[in-house]
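User: quick one, fold this
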Amino acid sequence: MVADVRQRRGVRGHEYAWANSLRLQAALAQAGIQYRHLRELAPTTELRQLQYQEDDRLRVEKRSRVELTEGYRRRYLHEVLDQADLGAILESLPEDATSALLCVERDARACHRSLIAARLQARYGVPILNLVPGSRRQR
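Assistant:
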């Protein structure tokens, strides 16, 4: 199953056309992979703007970011993850299949999905494997 943790599921640019929700869902269905949108794990517009402001201040382009700023991390954990029932979400995922968190940042450390994964691992012992296009597996 692919668990989409984005707030907005439309992505600009031809490079990311595959990630637009309807196209992605059709491709996954054709491959026999389930899709689920977990909007409750998505950062709010305000949080995304906070990260963009920090990116601008640090002169880092969004697609070049390699890690989240501390202010964003702290607020995302408090405002989103602390409010989410991760246990219920985890129980709702298929037991007999692998599930993947989807967002579009290439580097997991530059994306809120790394915070979700870390919390799942710390609280529930969920093994985490970061998939990076064109590279070998990373733990």
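User: anything notable?
Assistant: The helical segments are 21-30, 45-57, 70-81, 86-92, 112-124.
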